[in-house]
């Protein structure tokens, strides 16, 4: 049944039943990790970014409102990229990157 649900529906279901959220994690984790790694160029940092991103997606799930032209995927990637750039700036300031 989960395979027929859209990401937006899975996110909505996950608010009441967190076990649904694993579907989104399984679907996006590898792609998110590649994208974050492209920004920070450090595996451990990229993994931290992805974990933080999924935490934010779940925490702010109620804020996602399906609108024309706005899919879950683009909303989630925006959170990922903002989180990645924030981490990158912190690394740059600390001289770690």
Task: Write a concise keyword list for the protein shown above.
single chain; 97 residues; 0% strand; elongated
Walk me through this protein's architecture.
- The structure is a single chain.
- By secondary structure, this protein is mainly alpha-helical.
- The protein is 72% helix and 0% strand.
- It is built from four helices and no strands.
- It has helices at 7-16, 21-40, 43-59, 72-94.
- It is elongated.
- The model has no long low-confidence stretch (mean pLDDT 91).
Topology:
Blueprint: H1 7-16, H2 21-40, H3 43-59, H4 72-94
Helix pairs in contact: 2-3, 2-4, 3-4
Helix/strand-derived class?
A: mainly alpha
The main sheet comes to:
none
State the order of secondary-structure elements, H for helix, E for strand.
HHHH
Strand content: under 5%
| Nearest-integer average pLDDT | 91
Mass-distribution shape:
elongated
Poorly predicted regions are: none
End-to-end Cα distance, whole Å, is 44 Å
Give a summary of the structure in a few sentences.
The protein is mostly helical and 97 residues long. It is built from 4 helices and no strands.
């Amino acid at each position: 049944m989960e395979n027929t649900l859209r990401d937006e529906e899975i996110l909505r279901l996950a608010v009441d039943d967190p076990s649904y959220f694993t579907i989104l994690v399984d679907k996006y984790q590898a792609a998110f990790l590649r994208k974050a790694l492209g920004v920070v160029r450090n595996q451990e940092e990229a993994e931290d970014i992805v974990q933080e991103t999924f935490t934010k997606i779940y925490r702010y799930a109620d804020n996602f409102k399906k609108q024309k032209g706005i899919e879950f995927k683009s909303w989630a990637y925006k959170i990922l990229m903002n989180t990645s750039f924030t981490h990158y700036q912190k690394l740059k300031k600390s001289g770690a990157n």
